[in-house]
Amino acid sequence: MAQLNTQLAGRHYISPLMNASGIHCGLDYMLDELTHSKAATYITKSATLQKRLGNPEPRYYNYKQNSLNSMGLPNEGIDYYLKYVNQDPQTAQRILSITPLTIEDIPLLSKKIDASGYDGLIEINLSCPNILGKPQIGYDFDQMAHYMKVIDQSFYPGSYGVKLPPYFDLVHFDMVAQILNQYPLAFVNSINSVGNALMIHEQQTVIFPKNGHGGLGGATIKPIALANVHAFYQRLNKNIDIIGTGGITNGRDVFEFILCGASMVQLGTVLAQKNLDIFEQIENELHAEMDKYDYKTISEFKGKLQYIQENDAISGASH
Ligand SMILES: Cc1cc2nc3c(=O)[nH]c(=O)nc-3n(C[C@H](O)[C@H](O)[C@H](O)COP(=O)(O)O)c2cc1C
After folding, report:
1. What CATH topology corresponds to 6-300?
2. pTM of the model
3. d(Cα 126, Cα 151) in Å, to the nearest integer?
4. Residue 71 and residue 61: Cα distance in Å, rounded?
5. Interaxial angle between packed helices 222-235 and 170-180, expressed in degrees from 0 to 180 and rounded to the nearest 10
6. Which tens digits make up the pLDDT trace of 19-32?
7. pLDDT digits (tens, 9 = 90+) for 291-306
8. 3-state secondary structure at position 307
């Protein structure tokens, strides 16, 4: 049987599967449930310095295999998540997600993390599309360069990664990689929701904040997420691992993210819509997909996307 074990930032995991931040990870009991599921590890809800209630409801909507949300980062605050991860016997395997709401928050968050003795990985969210009145740092490259400088001064080399928004222009991939390659990041997580999408039911918006605009997740965004993982795998320093997130619903999807260069993947909307059994189901489907191509390990096909040649016939099923 194929082996699903993988590595992220030199840490070993039994499979590439975990939850995405914001999904089933906001409270202790949810993190407990993830710990006892087939997920290889968990990431916490993005924590801010202080507890936040988030945006007014309704703020989440499911439509088929997609979701639209404008949660506005409701979370218990950094102290709550630090307390949880630090009592976890597997702390070093865990990922703590944080969102600095201003550049001044960065050293304040890092001081708290450092003082707590936390030695797991840290994911810094530079891409929340749902904070009223705040642009996404990931779309303002001058600001992003500025943030990265402060992040570099505040966190230990190799202890952190950043979560990025989706990009749609090859020049933007170049610009972002050029900024990130200057720093000792452990990983990049690509992508956060596709920001400010709109869904309409009958004649009405489906969520309340921002006149109905919210982050799109789910199956529809997979091609965008794959493109982002592929583009960053080609451009980032090889010691920066990639977590692939966006639109995963089955084992075939995970196989495609790994072909594009992902070391691990995260389940967002699919986990919100189904239950924790989804980890086992997707794990089985990934086994089957690897068997189909006779791969015994993840490293055999990680980043090995094959490019169609000019005048090749398109083979296989059409999607
Ligand atoms: C309800 C909800 C809450 C989310 N909260 C966060 C968050 O706190 N931090 C973060 O980095 N991403 C957050 N996200 C984005 C997801 O982690 C993920 O990047 C996005 O949904 C795309 O993955 P998917 O297509 O599998 O849903 C949230 C998404 C949803 C649907």
Report:
1. TIM Barrel (3.20.20)
2. 0.98
3. 11
4. 11
5. 50
6. 999 999 999 999 99
7. 999 999 999 999 999 9
8. coil
| Ligand 1 neighbourhood includes 263 CB (under 6 angstroms) | no
Q: Is the CB of 247 under 6 A from ligand 1?
A: yes
Give the orientation angle of helix 78-86 with respect to helix 105-116, to 10 degrees. 30
Ligand 1 centroid to 245 CA: how many Å?
Answer: 9
Question: Which residue type sits at 81?
Answer: Y
In DSSP notation, 219-244 reads GGGHHHHHHHHHHHHHHS-TTSEEEE
Question: Measured between alpha carbons, how far is 298 from 98 in angstroms, rounded to an integer?
Answer: 29
Closest CA to 247 of 238, 256, 237: 256
Give residue 161's identity as a one-letter amino acid code. G
Query: Would you say the CB of residue 125 lies under 6 angstroms from ligand 1?
Result: yes
**Position in ligand 1 atom list of the atom nearest CA 221:** 25
Position in ligand 1 atom list of the atom nearest CA 219: 25
CA distance 61 to 68: 5
Enclosing H/E stretch for 110: helix 105-116
Annotated catalytic residues are 127-128
